[in-house]
Amino acid sequence: MTSPGTLYGVGVGPGDPELLTLKAVRILQSVPVVAYPATPQGSAQARAIAAAWLNGQREIPIIMPCMLDRGPVNQGYDEAAVIIAEELTAGRDVAVLCEGDPLFYGSFSYLLHRLGAHFPGVVIPGINSVSAAAAAAALPLITGEQRLTVIPATAGDEAIRQALLDSDSVAILKPGRHRPRLLALLQETGRTADTLYIEQASRPEQRIISRFAEIPATPGPYFALFLVVRSGNLAAP
């Protein structure tokens, strides 16, 4: 009887291919099958990051429609899980590429939920967007006993407002069309002086805006975030 293949969740980091771990590269070069999220138009950010280490494996694009309705998105994961399960059952290892870290708002989490109980799995962590943005800005996020809150821009006003009021540092992920609303909340909570806005961290298109007044009050790109860090965070204990 054929032993099942291993399901690998491979974090490919925030965009710079040199930020992949040695283990991630080794797995990518050894597995016969790779899968990755892709748009209906064929764009696949995770694959683009890892492209230099792919060598002719079978590729399984996981088509993810860009919409708020979770129904079609869940259907995409369901269909991909069936195809990946066939490969694993046949004894072939599958590496699922995931931008950032597989388990930090990572798309791999949804496949792990569907397949993790049925096949052996290994998760290879990657550098997440919050760490990449802080590194790009050379900005310490938290020290000592301070608190960091990570929250998506899709959260409601009250949740984001409370995070800004209660936490020493806040990372607001994927602002996109929510950027004008977030700017208003940052003003309301008195955190404008603490705010950095970063797009495309670690990528050639990287952009850092440190002056609050220069952040456009219009919808922006998906691959961006706000880092809100109290100015006293670096005071000596």
Number of helices: 7
Query: Per DSSP, what share of the residues sits in E-state strands of 2 or more residues?
Result: 15-25%
Structural class: alpha/beta
Give the total of beta strands. Answer: 10
Tell me the domain tally.
2
What distance lies between the first and last C-alpha atoms, to the nearest angstrom? 61 Å
Mean pLDDT: 93
User: How helical, in percent, are the residues?
Assistant: 25-40%
Unreliable parts: none
Name the CATH superfamily assignment of the largest domain. Tetrapyrrole methylase, N-terminal domain
Major sheet summary line: 5 strands, parallel
- State Rg: 19 Å
Strand order of the largest sheet: 3-2-4-1-5
CATH class of the largest domain: Alpha Beta
- Series of H and E elements: EHEHEHEHEHEHEHEEE
CATH architectural arrangement of the largest domain: 3-Layer(aba) Sandwich
**What general outline do the C-alpha atoms trace?**
elongated
CATH third-tier fold name of the largest domain: Cobalt-precorrin-4 Transmethylase, domain 1
Write the layout of secondary structure elements.
Layout: E1 7-11, H1 22-30, E2 33-38, H2 45-50, E3 58-63, H3 70-89, E4 94-98, H4 108-115, E5 121-124, H5 129-137, E6 148-152, H6 157-166, E7 169-173, H7 179-188, E8 195-199, E9 207-209, E10 224-229
Parallel strand pairs: 1-4, 1-5, 2-3, 2-4, 6-7
Antiparallel strand pairs: 7-10, 8-9, 8-10
Helix pairs in contact: 3-4, 6-7
